[in-house]
Design brief:
Structural class: mainly alpha
Largest sheet: 3 strands, antiparallel
Number of helices: 6
Helix content: 55-70%
Number of strands: 3
Strand order of the largest sheet: 1-3-2
Strand content: 5-15%
């Protein structure tokens, strides 16, 4: 297989494979009532909590779209809402104990995935891969603009 074909295959198939594997790894018996998308929202909320507008910006979605997902996460016991005392329009989201467990579960998957790559690369190979992935990230950011 030629170099172009190898990279084309990786770039076309890798994202879908990661999504499929991530879903199988994340949605365990303990977290069967939420989706991978919910896990990414939990990740964006973070352990310290965050404002709805900041979470939406981090996820590149509207606050309205986030509200729909957040309603579900609150109902399922993963998060709580708190209105700001200074400005009642501002809503803070905090993870519950259950939400923090999901956050750590998701972070552990990402750590294992990253370690699986870094464990087989020497320092120079890691730098080359980082540079290539940085260029790919730049391509996608420019492409969506």
């Amino acid at each position: 297989m030629e170099r172009y074909d190898v990279f084309h295959d990786i770039l076309v198939n890798l994202f879908q494979e990661i999504m499929d594997i991530e879903e199988k790894a994340l949605i365990t018996a303990e977290f069967k009532n939420i989706s991978v998308n919910d896990m990414h929202i939990i990740e964006a909320v973070g352990l310290g909590g965050n404002k709805m507008s900041d979470i939406a910006a981090k996820l590149n979605i509207t606050v309205g779209s986030l509200t729909t997902s957040m309603n579900s996460l609150v109902k399922k016991g993963y998060a709580t809402r708190e209105r700001s005392e200074q400005d009642r329009r501002v809503v803070f989201i905090h993870l519950t104990l259950k939400g923090r467990k999901a956050y750590h579960h998701h972070a552990e998957f990402h750590r294992k995935m990253t370690d699986a790559v870094l464990d087989v690369l020497d320092e120079n190979e890691a730098l080359v891969l980082a540079k290539a992935l940085d260029r790919l990230t730049l391509f996608f950011r420019q492409y969506k603009s």
